[in-house]
Structures are given as structure tokens and as C-alpha cells.
Write a structure and sequence with these properties.
Elements lengths: L1 E7 L2 E9 L5 E8 L2 E9 L5 E7 L5 E6 L2 H16 L1
Antiparallel strand pairs: 1-2, 2-3, 3-4, 4-5, 5-6
Length: 85
């Protein structure tokens, strides 16, 4: 994984982006004093949005919106079933 962002006194600060090894964006969001804050977006390896998570000023999750979780669950079930048969 590759990460792009800045440190302030060895602590993550400001906008950060993370990328899969293939270069596709994995997640992006903001840090304040090393804690995630505000809206973070997470992507699947194929570039589709997986979810969006909102963090409060203490770095705790407020809300999470899963956009493609059904697709992920279906693919996981197909994978499990193929291993069984």
C-alpha cells in the first residue's frame, strides 16, 4: 500500500490518500492530530466506492454508508461456494 500525506510532529495531519499496490485509490480523508476526522471514502480494488465513513472530532465513527457491500457479499459467497463444491 502507498500512502500520501503530511506529518506534523510525527503525527498525521491534513489530507491523506491511500492506494492499492495497483495504483487504484483505496481511501482518502483528513486527519487532525493523528485522528481521522470528517468524511472518509473507501474504494474497492476495481475503483468502485465501497463506503463512506464520517468521523467526529475525537476520531470516532459517527455514520457509515456502505454503497457496494451487497456486491462484496455476493462475490464472497460465490468464492465460498466454489471452494465447497
Amino acid at each position: 500500500m502507498k500512502a500520501v500525506g503530511k506529518y506534523l510532529n510525527r503525527i498525521e495531519e491534513g489530507r491523506w490518500e491511500y492506494f492499492y499496490m495497483n495504483g487504484v485509490k483505496q481511501s482518502k480523508g483528513m486527519y487532525l492530530n493523528g485522528k481521522p476526522i470528517g468524511e472518509w471514502t473507501n474504494w474497492l480494488p476495481d475503483g468502485r466506492i465501497l463506503n463512506k465513513i464520517n468521523y467526529d472530532k475525537n476520531g470516532l465513527k459517527n455514520k457509515a454508508y456502505s454503497l457496494n457491500i451487497h456486491i462484496v457479499q455476493v462475490k464472497l459467497m460465490k468464492c465460498i461456494l466454489s471452494m465447497i463444491h
